[in-house]
Amino acid sequence: MTRLPDFRLETYFSRWEFTARHHLTASDARTMTLGALLELADDTDRDAFEHLSLGYTETFGDPGLRAAIADTYEHIEPDDVICFAGAEEALYVAMNVLLDAGDHAVVTTPNYQSAETVPLALCEVTGVALDPARDWALDLDAVLAAIRPNTRVVSVNFPHNPTGKVVDRAEFAALVRLCDERGIHLFSDEVYRGLERDPARTLPQAADLSPHALSLNVTSKSLGLPGLRIGWIACRDRALRSRLERAKHYTTICNSAPSEVLARIALKARETILARNRALITANLTVFDAFFAEYPDDFEWRAPDGGCVAYPRYLGAEGVEAFCTRLVEEAGVLLLPASIYRSDLTPTPTDRFRVGVGRDHAEAALSALSTWLRTGR
């Protein structure tokens, strides 16, 4: 395994995720029970789950699951899909296939840590920072300036974690063209797609726009089913897809058979699940808007364009790191401070924290936070 630094987010979560009373920084939408998911299944898939043989599965993924995934794209066939154990394995395998010593990659910052550290363990990497002063805008000129003759990958994530930013469709299409014209693979993390506040702002998927781009997705985030541990990459480059499969032989080999059938059910019921999760986020954002309006001297708040995380600014004198530490220790409210999202490639804000807006019980968590702000500080 490539030598990698500690994963700051997971290390932080290992301490607090299941002990804090209020998980106010969750990155996934509300989940459901196994029974509730099976209620969404058709007779064929329910029978397949109940009579499932618990043997090995195909390395590429269950054919029925890949067909269900392909149905969510415009120009992707089932054979253009390879499944993984969540998005993390997919990212790790893809970067190890696409990059080698002597290559170069470009990644946007701030980011989910492995989007930066996995490429950095393999080759030189240049960061391009989203600009908080311009509503987390992506500077395409900066991307172009960062590209070198040996650039093999440009990695982006929209809707963005942790800011919730969604770029304009024309801007995203221009990014795809920029990469295609230079023979660069665009690696597009699309795990929050489907949770845009304005459906008209939903971006096309990169693999639909380019035969060389890779679209990453997973059942964990928008569908709220992280326990299934099913992710995938869609890419029309069959030779590249074959290389991804051979690399997977050294990681998980194949996915969990029950999870693949359950993921197939979820993908077929995708519109029902997404509509439910969008409704919850809309309701939660009203609550978050009201909360932050009460504390204009403490916070600077902007609702996300999409996804179920946001990245408010903390204005208190003690700083966001001390704020988040005291809050979870004294009030049991878990937030992710800016240090989790620091980058070794570019300066990143040091006064932000991540909140999750996609789960139930936001009112109880914000009430605990409000009580602590009034009485505990």
Automatic annotation (TrEMBL):
Keyword hit for Transmembrane: no
Keyword Transferase set for record: yes
Pfam families recorded: Aminotran_1_2
Protein name, entry field: Aminotransferase
Keywords, in A-Z order: Aminotransferase, Transferase
Native organism: Embleya hyalina
Domain Aminotransferase class I/classII large: 54-363
Alphabetical list of InterPro entries matching this protein: Aminotransferase_I/II_large (IPR004839), PyrdxlP-dep_Trfase (IPR015424), PyrdxlP-dep_Trfase_major (IPR015421), PyrdxlP-dep_Trfase_small (IPR015422)
